[in-house]
Design goal:
By secondary structure, this protein is mostly helical. Helices cover about 50% and strands about 10% of the residues. It folds into 2 domains: about 20-85, Helix Hairpins; about 95-204, 3-Layer(bab) Sandwich (minor pseudopilin epsh fold), CATH 3.55.40. It has helices at about 20-40, 55-60, 65-85, 95-105, 105-120, 165-170, 175-185, 185-204; strands spanning about 125-130, 135-140, 155-160.
Length: about 200
């Protein structure tokens, strides 16, 4: 099945002034689209054409011959998670707030650690909030790497590739990350993904 660029789940100006329309037009319409288009070309002849995006990412992750496919398919998946992670005006659910308190030391500690992990990612990459067997963790990954290859469930993510923030924040990655955790996290999506991550265990 051909990969498709998902539409943004919000208007291009919905996150302004924290993330501009111009940033989203370049980031979504150009950067993300290029990963989708390139992955569709690279997957031809691999035998993975009928697999889901997640299956392709996992299958290609440790295969040197499929490294370019992994990079582009994983970046497609990562960016798709990013758009769902963004929204203004949401708050953590009671359950997520409790998990942040018990697993990460509270909201202030979570925000501090999230920013620190994002700053510690040398070069390009991502910083994630994940569920690891129901426990919340903050994980950073380089380049196109993501929690799929770690066996952890992504709840939300911030992109720390420079194209994610340079138009709005120039080289001030820390200010971008602080704004992200203070204002831009879609906590409704975090709660939804956490519930989904727990579902297999609950049904067992």
């Amino acid at each position: 099945m051909a990969f498709e660029l998902p539409p943004l789940p919000f208007a291009y100006d919905a996150l302004a002034p924290h993330m501009s329309k111009e940033t989203l037009e370049y980031h979504h319409d150009k950067h993300h689209k290029t990963y989708v288009d390139t992955a569709n070309k690279l997957i031809e002849g691999t035998g993975l054409e009928t697999k889901s995006l997640e299956e392709v990412v996992i299958a290609a992750a440790n295969d040197a011959k499929l490294k370019k496919l992994f990079n582009n398919a994983a970046q497609h998946w990562n960016h798709s998670q990013l758009w769902l992670s963004l929204k203004t005006g949401t708050k953590p659910s009671a359950e997520i707030a409790e998990r942040i308190e018990s697993d990460l030391g509270g909201m202030d500690a979570f925000k501090k650690s999230f920013v620190e992990e994002g700053m510690a990612q040398f070069g390009s990459g991502w910083v994630w909030l994940v569920s690891n067997g129901g426990k919340l963790e903050i994980v950073k990954t380089a380049n196109a790497d993501n929690p799929l290859t770690l066996g952890k469930a992504a709840l939300m993510v911030s992109d720390v590739w420079e194209h994610a923030y340079y138009i709005d924040y120039r080289n001030a990655r820390q200010k971008y990350l602080e704004t992200f955790v203070d204002t831009l996290v879609n906590w409704d999506h975090v709660a939804e993904m956490y519930a989904h991550a727990k579902a297999p265990r609950a049904a067992a």
